[in-house]
Amino acid sequence: MGDGGFMASYYNNETILFLNGEFVKAAEAKMDFYSQSLHYGYSVFEGIRSYKTVTGETKIFKAVEHYERLKNSAAAMNMPYHWTTDELIEATYETLKRNKLQDAYIRPVVYAPQNMKFDVNEQSFIVIEAWEMQPFLGDKLLRVMTSSFQRPNPKAFYIHAKAAGHYVNSILASQEAKAKGYDEALLLDMNGYAAEAPGANLFYEKGGKLVTPALGNILPGITRATVLELCNELNIETEEKFFTLDELKTADAAFYCGTAAEVIGMKSLDEYEFPLEWNNSVSRKIQLAYKELVTAPFRLPPKGEAINAQPLLIEVND
Ligand SMILES: Cc1ncc(COP(=O)(O)O)c(C=O)c1O
Fold first, then answer.
1. Which one of 131, 150, 175 terminates a domain?
2. What are 218-237's pLDDT values in tens digits?
3. Alpha carbon separation from 187 to 134, 135, 144, 202, 232 (Å, rounded)
4. 287 lines ligand 1 (CB under 6 A)
5. Are residues 22 and 75 located together in one domain of the fold?
6. Are residues 96 and 168 in the same domain?
7. pTM over 0.90
8. How many Cβ atoms are within 10 Å of 217's Cβ, its own excluded?
9. Which of 158, 171, 259 is the pocket-test mutation for ligand 1 (most atoms within 8 Å of CB)?
10. Contact 256/229 with Cβ under 8 angstroms?
11. Domain-embedded: residue 20
12. What pLDDT is attached to residue 104?
């Protein structure tokens, strides 16, 4: 995982976070050094972005989808979860407001109490942090390297869950790619098919069609789903299937997508240079449509109406 050359400043003396129902100063917040989460990577989290819309409002993009995934991740990991999506979305908007943030990266983490045994906990805790972040992988076309690390085997982990421990694999892959002078890694799955980046999903373009790895051995990305929705609206043909590295190296273009990475094109994969000029690709159209979608205006619902009644996919112009 990288900062793409943009280091985030996570917090300062003024920063407020949401900690188990209260808003507290990040600099004064405490975490338990005996937490099972710290020792074993046993926690679940989300990565969400908010945007300043073109009309100046703050909009958390796909808030419901992210908090529903957090709940599902906790359930997969047998972690107690006693929050509602609505209350967490409200707490997140309040966290943004208290930190005067509009374009932000938001990181909720559900973590465990003290427990060095491998049994189920009776309690979970939650923290919601937010900070300013530039594009996670930068904004230039990426030079990608096929990793020597595979994605975790779904028979070893619940791969659809966004669990902290899974990210040791991501860190190793990203560090390896950077040490070899690349921008990012591409990991294969345990069957040798192209899977995903350490923190983003993969698409390739061939003859105007977009192809992405089928679900099963990857994190089911919310951005991946959004790209598929955008393709549907823009009449771009798509396919979800398992494919090899050899097939990927015949593509016209390719990109990674994720909440943090947004939509970011690839220049090359190992020795293979994607031949299609990025600005002439269908992938570029999707990159622009995604940018337009995340910053499209929307109004908060009138008081008393559920926050998740907000329209989540807003019209995109061709
Ligand atoms: C391993 C992995 N794959 C894919 C993604 C993209 O998911 P999303 O679009 O929901 O952010 C992420 C980021 O959360 C990730 O960590």
1. 131
2. 999 999 999 999 999 999 99
3. 24, 21, 10, 10, 27
4. no
5. yes
6. no
7. yes
8. 21
9. 259
10. no
11. yes
12. 97
Distances (CA, A) of 264 to 200, 246, 253, 254: 10, 21, 11, 9
* Residue 303: inside a domain: no
Q: What is the pLDDT of residue 212?
A: 98
Atom in ligand 1 nearest the alpha carbon of residue 198: 1
With a 6 Å cutoff on the Cβ, whether 152 touches ligand 1 is: no
Between strands 200-206 and 194-197, the pairing is antiparallel
Query: Does the CB atom of residue 196 touch ligand 1 within 6 A?
Result: yes
pLDDT for the residue 91:
98
Residue 198 C-alpha to ligand 1 middle, in angstroms? 8
Task: Tell me the torsion sign for CA atoms 267, 162, 114, 17.
Answer: positive
* Tens digits of residue pLDDT in 79-138: 999 999 999 999 999 999 999 999 999 999 999 999 999 999 999 999 999 999 877 777
The residue whose CB lies within 8 Å of the most ligand 1 atoms, and thus the one to mutate among 46, 105, 171, 201, is 201
Beta carbons within 10 angstroms of residue 200's beta carbon: 26
Largest CA distance in the chain: 56
Domain range for 195: 142-294
For residue 109, tell me if it sits in a domain: yes
For residues 318 and 234, give the distance between their C-alpha atoms in angstroms, rounded to a whole number: 7
The verdict on the CB of residue 258 being under 6 Å from ligand 1 is: yes
User: Structurally, how many domains does the chain consist of?
Assistant: 2
We report the CATH number of the domain holding residue 65 as 3.30.470.10
- If asked whether residues 179 and 288 sit together in one domain, one would say yes
Domain boundary among 131, 163, 182: 131
Amino acid identity at 144: V
- pLDDT for 3: 43
Supply the Cα-derived Rg of the chain in whole angstroms: 20
Q: How far is residue 135's CA from residue 300's CA, in Å, rounded to a whole number?
A: 26
Q: Mean of the pLDDT values across residues 42-71?
A: 97
